[in-house]
Amino acid sequence: MSDTGTTTVTRTEREGLFELTAVLVGGLTRVGLSIAAIPLILLPKNSRRRARRAMAEFALAAVALPKELTAVSERVVDDLFSGTPSTPSLPSPQQLTDRARAFTERLARAADEFGASVGRAAGRAADQVERTAARVDEWVERPPQTPSA
């Protein structure tokens, strides 16, 4: 029985490592999104829902981007090694302009809605502070009466 000193990783060990890494990354992402969502408690219900939906879309985009890069990279490598020249199919400048304009408009609408929601929440909070300050002023000007025994 001799030990050669080499380490071999079997396929099942490697797949287990990938699964463990996927679980770890998924858990860290959930914790990160939960921590990022803590300040949303202060927002009104509709704004909170929109902000959470935006966070979910951002997370999905962050996941989709590496997949898209991988797909493009695979096509480029296949084209390089297949020997067939390929012409990239790029969108026209007008399509890019339209997409950018649509994205900008959606982003502006979302920012306006978010700003209006935050403004309403801040207005309600300021009104509540003013009412509370008025009550304190009344209490200071007219101390409570102690009941006679």
What does this protein look like?
The chain has helices spanning 11-36, 45-82, 93-141. It is an all-alpha fold. The relative contact order is 0.06.
Beta content comes to: under 5%
Shape descriptor reads elongated
Number of helices: 3
Q: Residue share in helices?
A: over 70%
Order of secondary-structure elements: HHH
Largest sheet: number of strands, sense, barrel closure:
none
**Global mean pLDDT:** 78
Please tell me how large the radius of gyration is. 29 Å
Poorly predicted ranges (pLDDT <50, ≥5 residues)?
Answer: none
Coarse structural class:
mainly alpha
- Spatial gap, N to C terminus: 99 Å
Secondary structure tally: strands: 0
